Amino acid sequence: MPSSAHDKCGVIGLCSSKPVAESLYFGLRVLQHRGQESAGIATHTELEDIQYHRGMGLVHQVFTKKELKTLKGNSGIGHVRYSTTGRSRPENSQPMLLTTALGDIALAHNGDIANAKELKEKYQKKGWGFITDTDSEVIIRMLANSVSKTGSMEEAIKKTMPKLKGAYSLTVLNGGKVYAVRDPLGIRPLCVGKLKTGLVVASESVVIDMLEGELIRDVRPGEVLEICQNELKTIYRIEKKHTAHCQFEWVYFSRSDSYLDKATVYNVRRRIGRELAKLWPVDADVVVPVPDSGRTYALGYSEGSGIHYAEGLMKNRYVERTFILPEQGQRDSVVSIKLNAVRSVIEGKKVVLVDDSIVRGTTMKRLVKIVRKAGAKEVHVRSGCPQVVAPCYFGIDMKSKDQFIALDKSEEDIAKIIGADSVGYCSIDALVKAIGHDKKDLCLGCLTGKYPIKIEGKEKRNI
């Protein structure tokens, strides 16, 4: 439960022989952990083209039964948002909608476009107007402009993709078809599955599970899929020698029961916990996870160390996920009402407190204080993610170096700041080993300062 970097968004798209609004709604409920600011659904009917509803708040707050009934049609897309580009306001919520010569286009976007500012300035000089301050609007307006020239949604996507530098997993709705688009480096996740009544694409495979479907595969990096009920076809692909899957997806953002790019999130986190036990052994009585984000890591640490595992912190499940709350003040105030210590587990014990990551350190500092107040003799903090020392430009809200507690500090320095007896981070090599992908196929920019895409004034990694 880091404090704090936050991702981004969750997307879903569905084509079926039956109305899709309810399935999109439940799919977004499953993806709620990826964004809590706003939610939206767009559906297509032949008579009325695209209908949509979106608003600020959680999915169940934005949609009532009455609103879902108005969203008719057998194809549609959905979105949950945490803002990494653009302010938190209603007009920035998604899906976004534009009317073109080919009818309405709706778009849902997960990720960040690193060259969005340059693109926006370029098109503004040509007379384009922009309503929002999001990079997602840049994408949909580029698509609409290309559609007017080519008369084809497929061609518009093909012409737009090479101009976008950064992370984008998209679902696009037009003419009753859903298009699934993933950037050439595969930075953000996207997968496709088969349902009894059609096909679904989503940010995480748990959506497919919830809809009682079967995972077919990940959308390949650089691939564009066209989905129409039971017909799935690749209409375009940009191939690169290497990918740049975001390591933070496995470390924090995705649910433990998700399957991302051939690696099960649960297994990755458990392996990281075991690696942590090797790297940072300690004489302790109990391993305590930070719920829910540190649970699997703590289990792995317990297995690797032989130290007893116990639930020493209880979570109030009716409080937001602090990592993706918009303001630091909100995150800080929520921590004290979100978690409480189990004194019988902690009192008089040497505690290993395990979490997925430590970014700013403010949340962990509060947690250490809670554990000490419950009578812990010692508190040793372990982080499943290596030290975050550099900004992210691809969809995680870590834009400035002064946010990072690990920058230019030793583990001893960090331990003093957060009030722990010791602090230990997973190494980059151990992280890569646990994920199971080649190091050259992962984006480790926030850990190394070397990025898979050229960022002005930053170092580009050699791949």
In spatial order, strands of the major sheet run 3-2-4-1-10-9-11
Major sheet summary line: 7 strands, antiparallel
Percentage of β-strand residues: 25-35%
Q: Summarize the amount of helix as a percent range.
A: 25-40%
Task: Determine the CATH topology of the largest domain.
Answer: Glutamine Phosphoribosylpyrophosphate, subunit 1, domain 1
Number of strands: 25
What is the radius of gyration?
Answer: 22 Å
CATH superfamily of the largest domain: Aminohydrolase, N-terminal nucleophile (Ntn) domain
- Gross geometry: globular
Number of domains: 2
Number of DSSP helical runs: 16
Structure classification: alpha+beta
Indicate the mean pLDDT: 92
Regions with little confidence, pLDDT below 50 for 5+ residues: 1-7, 322-326
Distance between the termini: 32 Å
CATH architecture of the largest domain: 4-Layer Sandwich
* CATH class designation of the largest domain: Alpha Beta
Describe this structure in words.
The chain is an alpha+beta fold. It has 2 domains: 9-240, Aminohydrolase, N-terminal nucleophile (Ntn) domain (Glutamine Phosphoribosylpyrophosphate, subunit 1, domain 1); 269-437, 3-Layer(aba) Sandwich (Rossmann fold). Helix content is 30%, strand content 26%. The chain has 16 helices and 25 strands. It has a 7-stranded antiparallel beta sheet with strand order 3-2-4-1-10-9-11. Strands 5-6-7-8-12-13 form a 6-stranded antiparallel beta sheet, covered by helices on one side. Strand 15 and strand 16 form a beta hairpin. Helix 5 packs across helix 6 (153-160), helix 9 (265-279) crosses helix 10 and helix 9 (265-279) packs antiparallel against helix 15. The longest helix has 16 residues, at 135-150. The radius of gyration is 22 Å and the shape is globular.
